[in-house]
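Dear support,

Our group has been running a series of protein-ligand predictions, and this particular one with pyridoxal-5'-phosphate is the one our PI (initials K.S.) wants archived with full inputs and outputs. We had some confusion internally about which version of the output was final, so please treat the block below as the authoritative record. The input we submitted was:
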Amino acid sequence: MEKLSELTDRQQDVRSNYLEITENIAKAAIRSGRKPEEVTLLAATKTVEPALINYAISLGLGHIGENKVQELLSKYDEYDLQHCDLQFIGHLQTNKVRQIVGKVSMIQSVDSFRLAKEINTQSEKQQRMTDILLEVNIGREPNKSGVMEEELEELLCQTAQLSRIRVRGLMTIPPICDKKSDVCKFFDKMYQLFIDISGKTLDNVSMDFLSMGMSDDYTEAILSGANMVRVGSKLFGARIYR
Ligand SMILES: *Cc1c(COP(=O)(O)O)cnc(C)c1O
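Confirmed final output from the archive:
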């Protein structure tokens, strides 16, 4: 019985967090001249048990994202995917692509042509299309995923040639900044890239999503032009790694 009441407490936390986050998103959307429904909340669900994820889905959460293939596969059968779509948001190794194509609606973390080609190959095998976002290393951090901005256009043109892939936008994880004003510079830079690319018409490429902003800075990201935010700990509480 103890477990049940524990879960109920956590459900209550998730409920109030969800209401607060969706309200903040709506306010930030309106402040930046958009409608609340034009900004998508994707919950980053790493380390969160499926029962609690499904509780959030029951509140109206429509998008979840995992960042590890192994964890996604181990939880896959338990997600309520009737009412929610599942995306991949973490660093993806080429040899694991096969395991998630067909299970996720979008892969947000494509940063090389090699990876895009493998997603294309596996999608071809399954006779399906896979949506992707290109991940940009906007802070030019060494050892971090993402393409450099000057390499983005070439990658975009290459991936646009792949018939089983649709490029739907851009994603970034900016450097950790002490000041909000510093992280905003990176968000603004990303928005500029997003707008520049939107202005070019490339076959197979539609700039529908600019995915940036996490628990500590999703409001700033929206004010800078993000239309998808990825929120984990602010929704589910601090992560417990077992
Ligand atoms: C964990 C994660 C997030 C969310 O992080 P929080 O700070 O907990 O909101 C967003 N994006 C990616 C790729 C993640 O892995």
